[in-house]
Amino acid sequence: MLTKRDLLLRSAALAAITAAATKSVPVKAQASTDRPGFFGAKDIAEAGFIFGLPIVMNYGVMYEYAVDRNSGQFKAPFNQIKNLTHVATYKDTAVVTPNSDTPYSISWLDLRAEPIVLSVPAVDPKRYYSVQLCDGNTYNYGYIGSRATGSEAGDYMVVGPDWKGATPPGIKKVFQGSTQFSIVIYRTQLFDPADMPNVEKVQAGYIVRPLSAYLKQPAPAAPAIDFPKIDKELVKTNFFEYLDFALQFAPAQSNEKEIRAQLARIGIGPGKTFNFKDLPLEQKIEIGLGMKEGERKIDEAVAKAGKDINGWRVSALQGDSAYFNGDWLKRATGAKAGIYGNDSVEATYPLTRADGDGQTLDGSKHNYTLTFLPGQQPPVEAFWSVTMYDGKTQLLIENPINRYLINSPMLPAMKTNADGSLTLYIQNKSPGADKEANWLPAPNGPIYLVMRLYWPKVTPPSILPVGEGTWQPPGIKRVS
Q: Which CATH number applies to 4-67+229-324: 3.40.50.150, 3.40.50.360, 3.30.70.980, 1.10.3360.10?
């Protein structure tokens, strides 16, 4: 779900350190009661950038998807749903590492005035689907779907952090997020291209409506909001202004007291109006240096995240508030590695740019194979897939057979080896007509592969806990 514009946030700290930094600045500013001294603001900005990156990234996506109708990424107004009736191909370039397994439906919820009721239809138990609830703190605070609630129809209520009302009859479960705005991400399994009309029938049963509409009562109104425009240049210099804006819709949790108090010292938080351009030069430099250091620490954490297993990187980077437990670096790492990723119990994502020997995958230099031994295919309750991406862009690649992934629903049309093992041929050119059913076309250059395990099994053999279970993804082998 990470868009190109989301990636621009990754360089958010750079512009704050400008030529002005070369001017003479005292080693220590005069102490004052309303702002920290030199280096104090730097430390606060570093911690604040790590704390705030997921929140600002989320705001950027929300602005494009639900506020700015001219963004090119607009999906639907708040409290409405947008069903996407296709899966990604090489022509889809707005989202990096796109999912080509499950067509998306997306809804942004404004929970300020009243709860929102999400209704789902009965779904064939053979078809996996999930509804992920993620709030403005990027906490996954609930799931509806095959794993979490089953395949039956149902009505579920989503409420804001301050809601204390009664649960109406007919509501199966109430989900409460930590912020007033949330994104709802629906994933509906597609078996093959001809199956899309059946997916659309399921999507037609996804209903989003305010509680008042569900109860057929008058609707309360929330005050209008002047959402600040977001783009690359503004984020570079106004990062903390966006954070300041977003925090008004995110009541402080108990584990945020310390970081919120520190942010208030530089003018960020309730009753504050942070304005970077009005700061003294020395404090601009302090804050710029702090943001830069915060970004460095996040990048370092992303590079080290997870466990290396046979060349695959396996990690658990997403969860609810209790999962992160105030570890802001862990939360920022998850957002930067892939905002809106699933909890590992819903889907686990081994990924790699290297073969089993640690050598970089390159379709212009080598052919490769990936072999699952008998009984050693990914252990899932739903289905698994292996998707091919260009190693430079992380986008799907154009290829002569229009195949971007191999997944378990394709197995009946694939060939197994004499011993019952399954070999995938990962290469730029066809391996030959007799092997083409198992061919995953590769780019003529660097390769990036993502394995998706939907609803991974929890009993052995299993990859859970992530990277520590009895099942391990097999290494990719170079073909001599």
A: 1.10.3360.10
